[in-house]
Amino acid sequence: FISQNAPGTISRAGAKIAEALHHLQLHRPAPPAGSHWLELGASPGGMTSELLKRGYRVTAVDRAPLDSRLDQSPGLKAIVADVASFRPAAGLAYDAILSDMNGDAMESIDHVIRLVPFLTKTGIVVFTLKLPGVSGFTEANDLQAAIANRAEAAGLRISCKTHLTYNRREFTLFLERADSPSATPNGL
Questions:
Q1: Stretch 5-25: mean pLDDT, rounded?
Q2: How far apart are CA 183 and CA 167, in angstroms?
Q3: Distances (CA, A) of 116 to 6, 33, 75, 129
Q4: Alpha carbon distances (Å) from 64 to 45, 80, 140, 186
Q5: Residue 134: how many CA atoms within 13 Å on its side-chain side?
């Protein structure tokens, strides 16, 4: 159980990433403290706050600003911009990309794919597959398969996936580069 009402909690999204990192460790080690995360769709900052508490550095990108309680947080670079216009500095590399963007899932995975060249070879992607308008299991499975196919065509493989306790109408997909030393030959 992860409290969503603890003092200082910004949003329930903090519980989502805490549970996601716990689930990830069933399959591979989570990135170590000090790792640099690129968070897409960061506002209001619930996940950002949880990542910072775990000792990660975070570059948080969203059109809306983060909660003011995160102002001046060590290890945080907040960028108020549309993810589509965000361009990392040359030579910059991230240990993880976290995507919790609202909107079309295919568009969201395309933003992640565009940023994969900035992901370290052993880096991971934590992708929230949102299901607005999806009405049943077949449609949800078809969308997940389409996301997996698009990611695989771009050199990413799903290493594990889950429906987290703290997800509502969402699945969490964990992807890694196909050329990663920890990548399994058949994805799952």
A1: 78
A2: 26
A3: 34, 21, 21, 17
A4: 10, 6, 28, 38
A5: 20
